[in-house]
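We treat protein structure as text, and this decision shapes the records that our systems exchange. Such a record has a labelled line for the sequence and another for the backbone structure tokens. The record that follows is passed on verbatim for readers who wish to inspect the format:
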Amino acid sequence: MLHVALWEPEIPPNTGNIARLCAATGTRLHLIGRLGFRLDDRSLRRAGLDYWPAVDVVRHVTFEDFERVLGEPPPRIWCVETPNDKLYTRADFVDGDCLLFGSESSGLPPSVRERFAERLIGIPMPTGAVRSLNLATAVGIVLYDALRRLHGW
């Protein structure tokens, strides 16, 4: 099983779409820190449709709580932050890894990026016309590629 973790997500439909991805793939979803919405938000639920009962979601107040719940030894945490010189296509994903994504407006905190610098990966954007992708799109790209490689799809 893989984990998807969202650091302080702000936009309910993004989180709803990511929850649906997690339900479809059997991936545990971790929501960390201050959320920009309530978990009973109508737009969040609408984006996840009727799949919420199938979502394995865990809420964490702090990053420390998140790490504590991951257990010992903790899984490897891959920080997806674009732009980045190391691409997600070069990551050596293994079962149990966690894909950590930052908030829509500010990404991951510098302290997290520095701490996990050896596992900081990005998605290429060859035109340079945009600085980032939609959060749900980014999660879908990296999650499905990791699963493809792990399961030989």
The two ends are 15 Å apart (CA to CA). The CA atoms of residues 123 and 138 lie 8 Å apart.
